[in-house]
Design brief:
Elements lengths: L2 E5 L2 E4 L4 E8 L6 E7 L6 E7 L4 E3 L7 E6 L2 E6 L8 E8 L4 E3 L3 E6 L1
Parallel strand pairs: 2-11
Antiparallel strand pairs: 1-3, 3-8, 4-5, 4-9, 5-6, 7-8, 9-10, 9-11
Amino acid sequence: QVQVVESGGGSVQAGGSLRLSCAASNIRAITAMGWYRQAPGKQRDLVASIDSSGTITIADSVKGRFTISRDNAKVYLQMNSLKPEDTAIYYCNTRGIFKDYWGQGTQVTVSS
């Protein structure tokens, strides 16, 4: 069955780094993979995505601090210089031909 599995979340102090990983399986013709985040009481927003041609979209709030990379059906998010406002649940998104697939989410907590 389809699986989208994230790993790498955790708790860090401001200025620290974390690396999130996501592996998708049994999804045919992936067109893009990316990361979204949702803080308590807020909507889920795009953090960064990368499509099959390598085109990257990244939120202004994380430019210069976060880097997305992809290797086939795996996608990574390197997060540096983390800020308390980066605290959220981070979700991996895998876009197939007909629908999006989501992971279960991984918590990232940044303390000041």
